[in-house]
Design a protein that fits this description.
579 residues, alpha/beta, Gyrase A, domain 2, Isoleucyl-tRNA Synthetase, Domain 1, 21 helices, 13 strands, 52% helix, binds arginine
């Protein structure tokens, strides 16, 4: 149920009767103070000026024209130009009842679309680091929400599992002893990353080694069995470690969701041929290049995108052109969303432009690049270890757990070691995730351990704790859910406030499904929890004078708990019974 939308539609209907040509876009907001009306039309003055009417006159037309009288208790005009909508308590109660009895909290399934979400996508032979956190967790929230709404979500973990780095690594590990050790699982990912760093140094300084590395790349590309085996092992060691991170982060990515760069390899030669035939790509100094007039270089000339190097090697762009083609023609994607940092925007637009020119994807297939800012430390510099290195994700999650252990001990909760670690993982990692998800993804944010682990403010511990408190109230009542047959009775302001907030959930979910902005959910859950607190302060639940009222308030509490739980689940944040 999306009340805001219902009101908006009602107004739009009336406006289109006055003049059907224009798009008025009425802005409806949820009022903070219920006495002034639950919802408000905020841009009446602007709409009135478009229609060349006095705001007061237009408000009369709108108020007089609204048909759904069963929803509205009253609709009033207030100076200088607002319309206030008071909703009938009885109608609110009926809607709450629908949510109460529905496992989907009353949210309808949407006509399903095929939606590809490209997220996480780390590179092989390296441990995941904090630069992968935002893509992984924000992408996962979008995946969860679109799936919940009924879409066919295709999670695409576009790992960087192909390219020169493998030539270097194979050249570095070339001797028999190392290869055997690798195959026998003696090398951890950490060790492989160290080899990779050393190999890269050698590649940059030793020409002979560089030559050998390139030869190995060609061998690998031509399907040499030994190289292929080593490559596969490197990919598998990395992905086993990455999967551990995904599990700890409670993200829904599974091994089957991995469709890395190497997957597109077999498509690349024919794409190059095709682009040459279609005169989209040309040969210049031995390289194959697409010149795009849509992009200009510093000299104002069309920008060239190299899609095949002189040595016949393909590039990151070539793979993404193939990837667009595959996602549209084979996966039948109606929508493709990328969670990759903003520096890759130009790269993606170029690949997408080329794919469109070649007719691999239709003109109207939109590229949705959901960009995000960086994590900064308190001094506003990129967040790094003390010695200036990138922070590994595993390191970050270990520290989160450690800090949560202290937090729990400080609260004087004494738990058996296993239980303590389990609870600390949930609290610590949720705090890290929530701190990130609660910031608008478009901006940088400051990573602050103390704030994210605080029990006050818009934090995971606050919401998780609020949830446990509500659950304990519900349990204390000893009234089975079956006995809560009557509809909720809404009398006090804080009850109505809470009721309207609960009903707002669907609107929040739909908004995030369009924009991929989880911070809206965090803000919503935080508000919901604070509205519950003021309801709890103002209305006795268990000691209400009449049993009817007690049951009604209990029902509101259950509705709040259900909504918090579902919202946290959409964010991939676990709940706990006791904190
Ligand atoms: N592997 C890339 C990186 O670490 C991200 C891949 C994003 N997806 C894509 N289709 N290009 O930067």
């Amino acid at each position: 149920m999306n009340l805001k939308n219902i009101i908006k539609k009602d107004i739009e209907n009336i406006l289109s009767q006055i003049n059907p040509i224009k798009n008025y876009n009425p802005i409806i907001i949820l009022n903070k103070r219920v006495q002034l009306g639950h919802y408000q039309l905020n841009n009446l003055i602007k709409i009135a000026s478009i229609l060349k009417l006095e705001p007061c006159k237009l408000s009369e037309i709108i108020i007089g024209g609204i048909k759904k009288k069963y929803i509205y208790q009253k609709i009033t005009f207030s100076q200088p130009g607002f319309i206030n909508f008071f909703i009938k308590n009885d109608w609110l109660s009926t809607e709450l009842e629908n949510i109460f009895t529905s496992p989907r909290l009353g949210i309808k399934r949407i006509k399903p679309k095929n939606i590809v979400i490209d997220y996480s996508s780390p590179n092989i032979a390296k441990e995941m680091h904090i630069g992968h956190l935002r893509s992984t967790i924000i992408g996962d929230v979008t995946a969860r929400i679109l799936h919940f709404l009924g879409h066919n979500v295709i999670r695409a973990n576009h790992i960087g599992d192909w390219g020169t780095q493998f030539g270097m690594l194979i050249a570095y590990l070339e001797n028999k002893k190392s290869i055997t050790a690798l195959q026998d699982n003696y090398f951890s990912l950490e060790k492989i990353e160290k080899f990779y760093c050393k190999a890269k140094k050698k590649y940059d300084s030793d020409q002979l080694f560089a030559k050998k590395s390139r030869e190995y790349v060609v061998k690998l590309q031509n399907g040499d069995q030994r190289c292929h085996k080593i490559w596969k092992k490197l990919v598998s060691i990395t992905m086993v470690e990455n999967q551990k991170i995904y599990t700890r982060l409670n993200v829904t990515l599974r091994p089957d969701d991995t469709i890395g760069e190497s997957f597109y390899n077999k498509m690349l030669p024919s794409i190059i041929e095709d682009l040459k035939n279609k005169k989209i790509a040309i040969e210049k100094n031995g390289s194959i290049i697409v010149f795009l007039k849509e992009f200009k270089n510093r000299l104002g000339q069309s920008m060239g995108v190299v899609i095949q190097k002189k040595d016949k090697g393909f590039l990151y762009s070539t793979t993404d052109i193939a990837c667009f083609k595959y996602r549209y023609q084979i996966l039948h994607a109606d929508r493709i969303i990328y969670y990759t940092d903003s520096r890759q925007n130009q790269h993606l637009i170029q690949a997408w432009t080329i794919a469109k020119k070649a007719n691999y994807i239709p003109e109207n297939l939109l590229l949705e690049h959901h960009v995000f800012g960086m994590m900064l430390s308190k001094n506003k510099r990129p967040f790094k270890t003390r010695d200036g290195n990138t922070i590994k994700l595993s390191q970050l999650l270990n520290e989160a757990t450690e800090r949560a252990i202290h937090l729990i001990k400080n609260k004087k909760r004494y738990l058996h070691k296993k239980k303590l670690i389990h609870l600390a993982e949930v609290i610590g990692i949720s705090a890290v995730k929530y701190a990130d998800l609660s910031k608008s993804r478009n901006t940088n944010y400051i990573f602050d351990w103390d704030k994210m682990l605080s029990f006050e403010g818009n934090t995971a511990p606050y919401i998780q704790y609020a949830y446990t408190r509500i659950i304990s109230i519900i349990e204390k009542s000893n009234i089975p859910i079956k006995k809560l047959k009557e509809k909720v009775i809404l009398q006090k302001e804080s009850e109505i406030h809470l009721a309207i907030k609960i009903l707002e959930f669907e609107e929040i979910v739909l908004l995030i499904s369009k924009k991929g902005t989880p911070h809206i959910m965090c803000k919503y859950l935080y508000q919901l929890a604070t509205y519950f607190s003021s309801f709890y302060e103002n209305c006795s639940i268990l000691f209400a004078k009449k049993i009817k009222i007690c049951k009604s308030r209990l029902k509101l509490s259950i509705l709040t708990a259900k909504t918090l739980k579902k919202g946290l689940n959409m964010l991939g944040i676990k709940i706990v019974k006791k904190m």
